[in-house]
Amino acid sequence: MSNHDPEKLEKLIHQSLRALPERRAPRSLELRVMAAIEARQALPWWRQSFAHWPQPAKAAFFVLAGALIGLSLRSGASVEAGSILSGPLALLGQIKAILGGIGDIGALVLRQIPPSWIYGAIAFLAVMYATLIGVGATAYRVFLQQR
After folding, report:
1. In a domain? residue 144
2. Global pTM?
3. Is residue 59 part of a domain?
């Protein structure tokens, strides 16, 4: 193993792991898992996920859902839903206006800063980030590699 061949190392690890005996789950875990599986299978079809529903029930659901959507679009239900949502939508409009004003103020302030200051700040942040990475790598080598 002095030549550090990754393929030989991989084969050795694979053979070593294959030679280990399989471990059994704790008996209490097995019992809990089997009980949960049996409880889930004992549920009636309408309490299971949609994929386990019988085909006629799935078809009836789609027909009923389509009928309700069509009915709501043709009747005045969509107008009533719009009036119900008008309060929260107005609040969202106000929040959008406030955030837009804050963004406009930020853009105005940013236009007043000289470009050389902005470039200097970006360069300073890049140097500080590189310093952080360097100090972290050095600390890792000094403190954790010696163990």
Report:
1. yes
2. 0.34
3. no
* Contact in structure between 104 and 96 (CB atoms under 8 Å): no
d(CA 81, CA 88): 12
C-alpha 17/C-alpha 94 separation (Å) is 62
pLDDT of 32-42, one tens digit each? 999 999 998 88
Domain span at 142: 115-147
User: What is the dihedral sign for C-alpha 114, 117, 123, 125?
Assistant: negative
The closest alpha carbon to 108, from 116, 119, 100, 97, belongs to 100
Whether 123 is in a domain gets the answer yes
Query: What span, in angstroms and rounded, lies between the C-alpha atoms of 137 and 145?
Result: 11
**Domain tally, the chain:** 1
pLDDT tens digits along 104-113: 999 999 899 9
